[in-house]
Give the backbone structure.
Amino acid sequence: MDSVNERLIDCFTAVFPGLTPAEAPTATMDTLPSWDSSRHFLLMQTVEEAFGTPLPEELMGEIDSFAGFRDYLLKSKG
């Protein structure tokens, strides 16, 4: 597993304590009942801190899954 996935799993399991590392890569807003707007904001902050990458506010409505965060981070690395 690559570093982006590992660090992103850490972010997801920190924000969603009941989520296991094995479940994190399939997490979406639709599959996690606790993923509300407050948790989404906290997740964005956690990801920003972990990766040292600012996430534009407009992404808040666009990224709604582990895969979405991963894809954005991989794309932003260039």
Notes: The radius of gyration is 11 Å. The mean pLDDT is 93.
